[in-house]
Amino acid sequence: MSTSTHDLTHDLEPLPLHVVLVPGFWLGAWAWDDVVPHLGAAGLVPHAVTLPGLGDVAEDRSGVTRDDHVRAVLDVVAPLEGDVVLVGHSGGGAVVHEALDRDPGRVRRVVYVDSGPLVDGAALFPDVPAEAVEIPLPSWEDLAAQGSSLEGVDEAGLARFRDRAVPHPAAVARGAVRLGDQARLDVPVTVICTSLPSEVLRQMAHPGPPLHTELGSLDATYVDLPTGHWPMFSRPADLAEEIVRAAQA
C-alpha cells in the first residue's frame, strides 16, 4: 500500500520549542519552580538548570570554573530537538552568552532577565580574592546596598530563598568571559528589565563601565517588568508571559 506525501506531512508533528532557564548567583533550578508551569501551559518545553557547585551546600566548589558552567548549559542544549531559547537571570546572563558564543547557530533567541551579556575579557566580580572558594548569600541589607532589589518578594519567599540558597563558586564570579564567534551578535535577544528601567539600561548598553556589556551591539528588544531583581519570586506569572512572548517572536 502506498503512502502519499500529503499523509506523511500530515503525520509529522512540529518540533518543540525549548526554553533553557539558567538562574543567577546562589540559585538552582528550583528558582524557576513558579515560572515553569506557565511556560509549559503555553506550549513551551522548559529546562531549568542547576549549574555545577549549586546543587547542595555540601558540594565542593573549589574547582568549579566559568567553563564548567558554560559546558553545563551546552550539555542541556545538545540533545534537544527543535528550536532553543536561552534564558539567563542575573549572573546567569553572562553564562548563557558564552554558551551562545560556543554554538550560535543552535540558539533561536536569548532572553536576559535583569541581566545582560558581558564583553570579552570582562568579569562579574573581578575583585573577588584569588584565595576565595565561594561567595555566601549576603544579608538582605547588603544585597539592597549593592543594587539587588528585593522588591515584591514576600516574607515566605525570602525565607525560602535564604533556606535554599547555596554559596556561589568564587572562580566563576571572578573569571573572565571568553568570546570568539562574531555570529553571536546576529542572534536576537530580549532584555526583561525588572529593577532597572529600560530607558536607563539603553543608555548604559556599551562596552565601558559600569556594565561592560555587548547589548549595544545586539538586535535587542527591551521589555519593562517593574519589580525587584528576582522576578521569578516576585512576579513569576508575568515573567513567564514575557519569556513566552520572546520565545515565540
Task: Describe the structure in your own words.
It comes from Sanguibacter keddieii (strain ATCC 51767 / DSM 10542 / NCFB 3025 / ST-74). InterPro entries: AB_hydrolase_1, AB_hydrolase_fold, Sec-Metab_Biosynth_Hydrolase. GO terms for molecular function: catalytic activity. Residues 19-241 form the AB hydrolase-1 domain. The protein is an alpha/beta fold and 249 residues long. It has one domain (16-247): Rossmann fold (3-Layer(aba) Sandwich). The protein has ten helices and eight strands. The chain has helices at residues 5-11, 36-41, 66-77, 92-102, 140-145, 155-164, 170-174, 198-204, 231-234, 236-247, and strands at residues 17-22, 45-48, 83-89, 109-113, 134-135, 168-169, 189-193, 220-224. Helix 2 (36-41) links the parallel strand 1 and strand 2 (45-48). Helix 3 (66-77) packs across helix 4. The chain is globular. The N and C termini lie far apart (42 Å). 39% of the residues are buried.
